[in-house]
Amino acid sequence: MDPLHAPGAGAPANAAETLLAAVRTLVAEVHPRQPPARVELGSALDRDLGLDSLARAELLLRLEAAFGVALPERVLAEAETPRDLLLAVERATPAEGLPTAPPSPATSTPAAFLPATAAVAAPASAPEGAATLPAVLAWHVERHPERRHILFLDGKDSTTLTYGELLARARRIAGALVHRGLEPGQTAALMLPSGLDYFVSFLGIQLAGGVPVPLYPPARKSQVEDHLRRQAGILRNAQVRVLVAAPEVRTLARLLVPLVPELREVTTPAELETGVATDGAPAPRGDTADVAFLQYTSGSTGDPKGVVLSHANLLANLRSVGKNVRFASDDVVVSWLPLYHDMGLIGAWMGSLYFGLPLVLMSPLGFLARPVAWLQALSAHCGTISAAPNFAYALCVKKVSDEDLAGLDLSSWRIAMNGAEPVSPDTVEAFIARFARCGFRRGSMMPVYGLAENSLALAFTPPGRGPRIDSVRRGPLQRDGRALPAADDPHPLRFVSAGHAIPDHEVRVVDERGRELPERHQGQLQFRGPSATSGYFRNPEASARLLPPGSNGWLESGDVAYVADGELYLTGRSKDMIIRAGRNLHPQELEEAVGTLAGVRKGCVAVFATGAEGEGTERLVVMAEARPADAEAAAELRQRIAELAVDLTGSAADEVALVPPGTVPKTSSGKIRRAAARQLFERGRLAEGSAALWWQLVRLSAAGALPRVRRLSRGAATLVWGVWAWLLFALLAPPAWLAVVLLPGRRARRLAARLAARALVRGSGCGFRASGLERLPPAPCVVVCNHQSYVDGFLLTALLPPRFAYVVKSELAGNLFARLPLASLGARFVERFDAAKGAEDARKAAAAAGGGDSLVVFAEGTFRRAPGLLPFRMGAFTAAASAGLPVVPMVLRGSRSVLRAGQWMPRRGVVTATLGAPIAPGGTGWSDALALRDAARAWMLAHVAEPDVGG
């Protein structure tokens, strides 16, 4: 066996550094729109670095030139990592006549195709191999223990915490908890205000092997007793053993011990750190599948729902967010969000911990008291990333004075996430306009969507783009759930895009039967991915609703949404949807409008539906907090609210309940709890009379049956069309197959295939429109197309003239039914997984193209159910460059909705095909192929109306 470190004559002493630099250069060229990959000797060339067979062939050529060696051909097939390549270089013999310096990077890529983040600093170092949150902290302590992790602003005072201090203090907490009997897997609750003690206690519980349970602390001392009683349900459900509370809560919290059988002790962080002489507990090994903590989304109403989140869930979410946001080493996170809420705990703290970013933390009460303090912290500390719910941006617009604006500089704020509650288009626009004079850019506003059941984040808008607002016609959305663009609607509904699913995650919109809906159809939002919870802690009923049997991993979000141009638009909560007289009414819009009326407390309005006993319909109720001066003022306010309801929803409110301040129930994060408000109303605890009219209810009941009839008819029509499409295919396929296989001459076979494909498209009634066919050159060319569905091949066969041959994956050659007609039509089979064979197949395809055939290539090489343009393989572009043929980019839109990956029942829809102008190669080299790929991909991205999910 050759020794590992026996360099050949051409291998320099710094061979590893030179080789890794060459690999990094090539990876950056092949994936220019992705964050720089971590290139190490052990990185997998295909899985980690995304280098296909042609890219690896190019890499070998560069290494031969860089080291002056001749590498054997088997290296292309056998080398799986840079370490394998280094060993091959060290064993190689010198090659005469080869240059000894690595080639300069390609310079033919137009500047417009460079990544948008090219000017951003290098990404922050991150512990990609860490399996748990304590392992993340240990990784940072090992490298920079003295680096400041958190700066906590408490009024005029501030305190800091380094990574080393956080670990040392957390270990002391862990040692005390172990000494007091906390066993691995047992739960310990945290009822602490924002501050450094929170982080120390949270990690201390994890280091002791326990499971933290964040609870929100009482807002005021006068509410401590009532607050603790409401939290008893969560403590019982979580089977909490230890409660770590603030000193002012500790005494009364001990009264909970009789109410929570498993609760053994109530203590404070200070007692844990100083009460026991210990060197700290050793960090448990921990496993990525272990429960990291329980995030309770409800619990004070008798149905506690504690989301079970593992370390794997959390780290997957953080890593996916990092791929989307592209954190830089000079980023600074600023947050006032409460730490008992997932957006503050996971997003602000765990995100900054994982990526090694400094966190400037404020108290939530400090923000509520002085909203400008948030903006001042961003200005003073050059904050670049900060997140908040929509109400916080609205509060800044309303409360920050012109005098305060004078000293603010928000130009460093590049990511302003807006989520955790419905995003108002008016608030977004008002904030951008108000603070533009302070340097705030429109592109910094980033509406996002997430939920605790997916750890935190689920969908983000592209960084730097700014908000996208969709105006839809009110009537069709309310009647039929169709989000049609509001071209002429004087009172449209407006929704803010939440963007696309974060990397490695999926979302879809389905009807009541779980069938995926096409674009601009409203339905139930489902999701799946590595961040998704396994269920609710000790709540099997709620877990079954979240993840129904047979759902194939899809979880119910409880939200209603639609997709337009590949982007997600949230329209409301499914349980809050109100159906009246055939209309689907969204409560958020009416709540926001009523909150603007004089005399009504803004943000303290609940709109919900309640049933009428004995009737199959719902009544619309508006509950608003107000203090009218007298009966006359109350009647006037009710009348104004009733008129507003008619104007906005087209339906009168059956009841307007004016209630005292503090009556409308809210969650800990300030969201309206409509279900709880409905319970208060139905139990008669508001001292409001009923305004129901039985005759009106009977009419509404009859009218409410119409949408159910419409939904059933649409479902039946979809099923009938799908069956007809399959029947037509079954009738056409046998004679078409025989004609293609048996007819003499390739042109006759292609004409037969084209005739059958056109008969299938036209006979099924699927709308198919094409534009740009006149751009096809009469001479040989290479058409590159995106890939959305199994029907794409039939559509292109029906569309393109019979001089085109397909380039298809070699797996199809193993299927006799597919191989015979494809071979008869002149298809070129290309190996996707064997590097050496794939490179050879690509060269043969290039030779065929040069011999007079035109080629059709699905540049992505595969397709998936979620929208998005995948990374392109290089085969089509190297073939075009080497043969000197123009590339014609082409996009298909709509075929994904007709038949998605993983589905077999097609849906009727409209498919469009658009062809671009031919792109001539600038030469025959690798850089020319890269330029062809980048130009074609840029055009396709501009016309496909789907996100870019690969570079």
If helices are DSSP runs of H or I spanning 4 or more residues, what is the number of helices? 30
Low-confidence stretches: 1-10, 96-124, 612-617, 687-704
What is the residue-mean pLDDT, rounded to a whole number?
A: 82
Report the sheet-strand fraction.
15-25%
User: Per CATH, what is the topology of the largest domain?
Assistant: Rossmann fold
Largest sheet: 10 strands, mixed
Q: Kindly provide the radius of gyration, computed on alpha-carbon positions and rounded to a whole number of angstroms.
A: 31 Å
Q: What is the strand tally? A: 34
CATH class descriptor of the largest domain: Alpha Beta
| CATH level-4 homologous superfamily of the largest domain | ANL, N-terminal domain
Shape, principal axes of CA atoms: globular
Domain count: the total is 4
Helix content: 25-40%
Distance between the termini: 40 Å
Class from helix and strand fractions: alpha/beta
What is the correct CATH architecture of the largest domain? 3-Layer(aba) Sandwich
What would the keywords be for this entry?
GMP Synthetase, Chain A, domain 3, 4 domains, Non-ribosomal Peptide Synthetase Peptidyl Carrier Protein, Chain A, 10-stranded mixed β-sheet, globular, 7-stranded mixed β-sheet, 30 helices
Structure commentary:
The protein has 951 residues and is of the alpha/beta class. It has 4 domains: 15-105, ACP-like (Non-ribosomal Peptide Synthetase Peptidyl Carrier Protein, Chain A); 133-389, Rossmann fold (3-Layer(aba) Sandwich), CATH 3.40.50.12780; 579-692, 2-Layer Sandwich (GMP Synthetase, Chain A, domain 3), CATH 3.30.300.30; 719-944, 3-Layer(aba) Sandwich (Glycerol-3-phosphate (1)-acyltransferase). Helix content is 38%, strand content 19%. Strands 13, 14, 15, 16, 17, 18, 19, 20, 21 and 22 form a 10-stranded mixed β-sheet that branches. A 7-stranded mixed β-sheet has the order 28-34-33-29-32-30-31, sandwiched between helices. The longest helix is centred in the last third of the chain and has 49 residues, at 694-742.
